[in-house]
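Hi P.,

Sorry for the delay on this. The queue was packed all week, but I finally got your sequence through. Input first:
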Amino acid sequence: MGAVDQAFIQAQEHRPAKPSSITYAEGIPLIDLSSPDGLVSEIGNACKNWGFFQVVNHGVPLEKRQKLEDSSRKFFGLSSEEKMKIRRTEKQVLGYYDTEHTKNVRDWKEVFDFVAKDPNLIPASPDPHDNELLELHNVWPQYPPELKEASEEYVKGMEKLAFKLMELIALSLGLQANRFHSFFRDQTTFVRLNHYPPCPAPDLALGVGRHKDGGGLTILFQDDVGGLQVKRKSDGEWITVKPTPDTYIVNVGDIIQVWSNEAYESVEHRVMVNSEKERYSIPYFFNPAHYTMVEPLEELTNEQSPPKYKTYNWGKFLSTRKLSNFKKLSVENIQISHFRISELADKLEGALSINNN
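Then the structure:
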């Protein structure tokens, strides 16, 4: 990636602290999924108070994750010319990419994306009047040859974990355990292999800039180098999540924030880089079907707690988001805040209703 050019440099207020001044956070929930006692309330408290947590005894075989991690390292070790053979484009949105932007600033990373269900359907464009669908197919490099099999085996274990976590989240909200299952029947789940090379100016650039995940649930493996930072809900401070062997970091996505009518909120996070070590991570983005209409669940709204969001289509939302991966936009990319029903709007609507009557 070479020296840090202007495209990578964060605005002054969003630059990370110098690596020498970073301290790891205490108190981040670490939940044992093999222990049934109090599990539902633990998950609920973590979602409500933190927006993310770590899980151990998660059921994903260690050897499957290690095999994918080893394959990932081999792939990113290839020459740029080889990796570019499966480079993503606006039409072929899966494969390799090294110029992604977050909040209109380029990320110090390279990635390889694949969908959990192949083929996969998403809207061809963000235009609400365009009903055309784009069929996504995974693209695999010639080397390493085991990457395809390692990826497909890994997602089997991750899907089981994702559904288990969604059941626990549903129960913690007072819902039936399978309440969310139907949304994921034709899921748009994808997996990303991340590689963060050493950066000569880690106090100016970020591996991934500050953002919230727009989907359902994110389940992250990070290697022992670390770098994930989360904005703590209690005080707004950026805290560093220390890598814990054989754990996954789980964070609530925007869709759960909307479904729960803000009982649970997605959390802002970012990734730091360093000047000495490269870093690898594997996030699994558990996302619903493209035709899902996202709105606060009926069971969680009433007169005292009316819906806080207007309904939106997940596929169109996803299609709009993907545009910013390929070009720097003139405005901030779409957020769920654009669908939030403000109290002022509620009052205005009520006044109009009274006047019309």
